[in-house]
Amino acid sequence: MAEVRPPIVEDEKSRQLMLYRRKLNEYREIEAKLKELRRKEQEMQKEHEKSENDIKSLQSVGQIVGEVLKQLTEEKFIVKATNGPRYVVGCRRSINKELLKQGTRVALDMTTLTIMRQLPREVDPLVYKMSHEDPGNISYAEVGGLAEQIRELREVVELPLLNPELFKRVGITPPKGCLLYGPPGTGKTLLAR
């Protein structure tokens, strides 16, 4: 009779355990790859939506710029379009109606004339630059060669403000302003500062 060997349980058990670990590692790698692919898919989906919005905005009809003249009701406004006419228009629900006061610039939909959004104030860069000019700190002592003009300017501008009783006593109405004239480069702006 042939000898029957008992099955080697230890070798089979360790082999199955090793196989299980290998499969578990493969599963974890596949799971990590799946997470990465899902993340990439979300990024691509966001990029796709942005591209769709860009395409829609390029294909959409432009908007009319207008200015709010008056609020009629909670939902209706009188708006003057830049091309001239005035309209009674509605407003999108997402816009804060408290910000739509008289003089506010808005964008109107071309077809429905609905207020689509509030626009920033229109500022002409040249006018803004001129209105915000820094005059600096210049005293009359720093202006040379214009002593006579400085004296006349002080008589016209400063004297009525500092001593109005002198003009009342003499019976002269104080001047409301003065005009500085002359060729360019003679110090008019410097004196005005």
Automatic annotation (TrEMBL):
This protein's name: Prot_ATP_ID_OB domain-containing protein
Domain Proteasomal ATPase second OB, first and last residues per copy: 65-120
GO molecular function, one term: ATP binding
The organism of origin for this protein: Bursaphelenchus xylophilus
InterPro entries xrefs: 26S_Proteasome_ATPase, NA-bd_OB-fold, P-loop_NTPase, Prot_ATP_ID_OB_2nd
Coiled coil regions, renumbered to chain: 20-61
One Pfam family recorded for the sequence: Prot_ATP_ID_OB_C
Keyword terms of this UniProt record: ATP-binding, Coiled coil, Nucleotide-binding
